[in-house]
C-alpha cells in the first residue's frame, strides 16, 4: 500500500491515488499517513474524499494529528472537528500543546465546548475519561415505532445506536432497550414494557481497567456511565474498552520489565526517550544490588576458605528470582483481571506457600544429587560434599519460601497503597530475593560448615 | 450475593431465591454457581427461570458445565444445548470427556451435529475455532424492508444481527450492511446499492491473536471469516475477540514468567497442578545456571586473589538480566500486538543497540564512581581501585550490549521457528545473560588486573 502510494505521488497521478486509497479502511489510511514523508501528509489528506479523510483522522496518532491541525485551513479544521465524536476530540485535546488546543476550541460551537470541558474534568484512567456522551436516549412511554423514528433522526451522529437508554425527567437511568429488542417486538409496543430494567452500569470515577474487565465478563456492546446522583451521563462502547484492555496489558508488560510505560509506539519513540524510560529503574536496581554485593563482602572469609561455595550462588539467585517472578506475575495478573482480590491475600498466601514447599523440595533434591555427582572427588577442606549439598538444599528451600512470600505480598501491598501492583514485578522482587538468598546461604553455610575463622 | 443465596437455600425459601437471582446477569449467576456447594448447583439451576438458567450455562467454566451435564435429565440437556450458540457448544465439547460429548451429541439434531463436526475440525487458536456460523445473510437484490423482514424472522437465534452479510449463490462474500445503514436508508432502497463492498475479512486458518488485533485496530463489532475459496463460512463477534485478547495476554504473562500456561483460573487449579506448571521451567533454569557456576569455578584463582571482585557479581548479573528483560519484553509485546514484524528485526536491533550504548555508558559511569567512593581506602593486592572500577565498567557495557542483542534476537528467532516468542522472555534471557556476564567479567578482569597465577 505504501509503495504504490509513493509511486502514484511521484507520478502526480492524484486521481488514481484517490481511487486507490478509497478502497481502504480509514484505520489503514491513518497508518499509511504515518509512514509517508511529512511533506506529503497534507497533500494526501486533501486528495481523499472529505468524509473518508475526516474518518481516518480519528485513527491517527497524536503526532500526526498535530501536524495536520497545524497545517489545516480554518474550514478544514472546522469540518474535521465537526465530524469527530466528542470523546475523540477530548482525547486529541489532551495530547496537544496549548496553542493547538486553543485553535481547536475556537472552531467548536459553544455547546460542544461546554461538553468538552465537562469531559476534560474526569481523572485520567477513569470511566468518565473514556466515555462518550453521544448516545440515544428514549422515554419509556414511546412506542417501538417512535423509537425507530427517533433513532433515524438522531442516530447518524451517535457512536452506537444498538443500545438505547431510557431515562426519566431527571436523567436517572430506568432501563435499556436494544435495537434487536425493537426489531423483534411489535411497532406499537411500549418501550416501558419491553425495556430491560436489570441494568449494569459503572460510575464516572470507576477505574477504566475494571470497566474493561466488565465488558469481557458480560460480553456487552456498551455500558452506561452514571454520576454520583445516579444520573446517566454517558456510555462506554466496546471498542474503547478493547483499547483500554490493550493499553493496560502493554502498560503492565512494560512495568513488569522495569520500563516506564508510555502510550507511544516502539518506532515512534526516540532512542533517547527509550533510554530515559529504562534508565531510572536500571540505576535503582543496580544500586540496590550493591546490597547483595555488600553481603558477599561480609562473607569473604567463608568463600575464600571454600571457593566452591561461590559457584552455587548464580543457581540460588536465579532459582529464587524465578520463583519470585512466577508468584508475583500470578498475583499481579490475577489482580488486573480481578480474579484475585486484595481480601483473598491469605488464601493466596497459603496456596503459594504449599506450592513453594513442593517446588523447594523437588529442586533441593535434584540440585543436591547434581552437586554430589559432580563434585564427589573434589577436595573441599574438611567438609564433606554431602554437607555442602545439604547446605545448598536448605538454602534453596528457604529462598523459594521467601521469594513466594514476597512475590505474593508485595503486589497486594502496592495495590493497598494505591500503586499499580505491576511495579512489584520480577525486577524488584528478584533484586530483593537475591539479597535474601545470599544472606541465607552464607548464614546456613557458616552454621553447618567448618570454616576457619568462623564460629 | 453468595451469602444471601446460601441463606435462602438454608431456609428452603426457593421462591424468594428465584426472585432474588432473577435480578442478576447470567454471567453473575454462572460465577455464583461456581461458589456454592456442589450439592446445591443443580437445585439452584432448576429454581431459575429456564431461559435465564440456559443463558447462564454459556458463561460457566467447563468443570461446572460438566457437573451439570452429568446431572441433567434428557429434557434439560436438550433444552440447554438447543439454546446455546453452536460455537459455544463446540467450546464445551472440546473440554468434555468422551462420554459426556456422546451424551451431548445424542441430544442435537443431525444438522447441528454436522455443523459441530465442521467447526471441530479447525485448528486450536485459529479464526475458525472461535467463529460462529449463526449470522444473518442477505441477498443484494433485497430491499431494506425485505432485510428487516428477514432479520425479524431469523434474528432471534443469531449471535449478532447488527452486521448482515450479502453473499452470491456460491456463498462468496459481496458486501456488508449494518442495521444502522438499514435504519438510515429508505425502506425501498436496494441492499446492493447501500452495501459496503470494501469488506475486511479473515481466513479460517488465521491466528486468533491477529484476528483480535484487527478488532482493536478497526473497532469492528464483527468480522467475516472466509474459507480458501473465499466463501463466507462464519463470523467472529467482538466479545469473542475480547476473550481471545485476555486469554493471549494471560498466556504471555505466564510464559514470560516461566509458567506453563493454562486456561484454568488461579483458585480452581490445585496446588499440585500449579507446582507442575512451574517446576519444569524452574528445573531447566536451575540446571542451566550451573553453567554460570562452572564458569565461576574456572576463575577461582582470580577471586581467591581479589575477593572483592565477587561482590560485584550480583550487580553485573542483575543489570544484565534487567536490560535483557526490558528488550525482550519490548520485542515480545511488539510482536504480539503486531507493532513489530519479524522483518523489522534489523531496524529494532539497530535501535536497541543505540539504546544499549546510552544505558551502558550511564550505568558504567555511575557504578564506577560508586566503587571508587566506597572502596578508595580498601587494599586490593597491587591493583588500584580505579582499575577495578574500569573493569566493572567495561563489563557492564559489554553485558548490556549482549543482553540487548539476545533480548531482541531470541524472540524473533522463536517466532521464525513458529514458537511463541514469549518463551524467550526474562527467565531464559536472564539465565543466558548471567553466564555471559560472568564470563565477560573474569575475562576482562584477567586481562586488565594483576592476578597471581594468571598471565
Average pLDDT, all residues of chain A: 88
Q: What portion of the residues of chain A fall into strands of 2 or more residues?
A: 5-15%
The gross shape of chain A turns out to be elongated
Uncertain segments of chain A:
none
Q: Domain count of chain A, please report it.
A: 3
CATH architecture of the largest domain in chain A: Orthogonal Bundle
The CATH topology of the largest domain in chain A turns out to be Tetracycline Repressor, domain 2
Q: Give Rg of chain A in angstroms.
A: 30 Å
Termini gap of chain A: 75 Å
Labels describing this entry:
MgtE N-terminal fold; CBS-domain; Tetracycline Repressor, domain 2; homodimer; 455 residues; three-stranded mixed beta sheet; 3 domains; mainly alpha
Helices and strands in order:
The structure is a homodimer of 455-residue chains.
Chain A (H helix, E strand, L loop, with lengths): L1 H9 L3 H8 L4 H8 L4 H10 L2 H10 L2 H10 L2 H10 L2 H10 L2 H9 L3 H11 L6 H4 L5 E3 L5 H11 L8 E5 L5 E6 H6 L6 H4 L7 E2 L4 H11 L3 E5 L5 E6 H19 L14 H28 L1 H6 L2 H4 L1 H24 L8 H31 L9 H32 L9 H23 L7
Helix pairs in contact in A: 3-5, 5-7, 8-10, 15-16, 17-23, 20-22, 20-23, 21-22, 22-23
